[in-house]
Amino acid sequence: MTAISILASHSDSIQMSFPRLSGQRDLYRTFMVFLMSRVTKLTTASSLPADLMYAMNAKLARCLMKIEDIEPNISKEVRRVMRDTHHILSDCWSVIQTNKTCSVDLSKLSTLDFNFDSRMSLAALDDYIEAGKSDHNLTGRTSLHPTSGLAIYKADVLPALFIDGSNPNMLVQNLHGFETWVGSHLTTWTAAHKGISD
Description:
This protein is mainly α. The protein is built from 8 helices and no strands. Helix 3 (27-45) packs antiparallel against helix 4 (50-66) and helix 3 packs parallel to helix 5.
């Protein structure tokens, strides 16, 4: 088991212990930033992929912003590791750009007429849109009649909890509405209907 995995498995207990031992709120964060910078420094010496080094550097930057009062020496060391990692990443990117150069022939762009070349005729779509406009104008209204399985509970009516299995998307919302009605209106409804038999 590596030191990092051991530390990760005990991070909750470490997080709880640090403030009690020191009385400082940011001590745990400071320790974690310092530890992360050590891990980042070790990984830059190995062949860790550049995207992971970038992610670690970004995480360090975010953690540094969260700490209000950090020991200057620790801050200086963490920033040095971040700067070194940035330089390694910049060098990697320069090598990639140098090795992957390819010439792109842009001469065809000079012959483009953007007013003409960027337009496309979609006759079937135009016909469909026009047909929809003419149907709408003839009837004066659309034939769309959406329905909802959402139950609406009125304050003065005792609701029945009807669970409609045909619309499973509304089960949670309808149960929530029923519970809300019970919490908000049951006492008032019971007082108004006391002594009335159905």
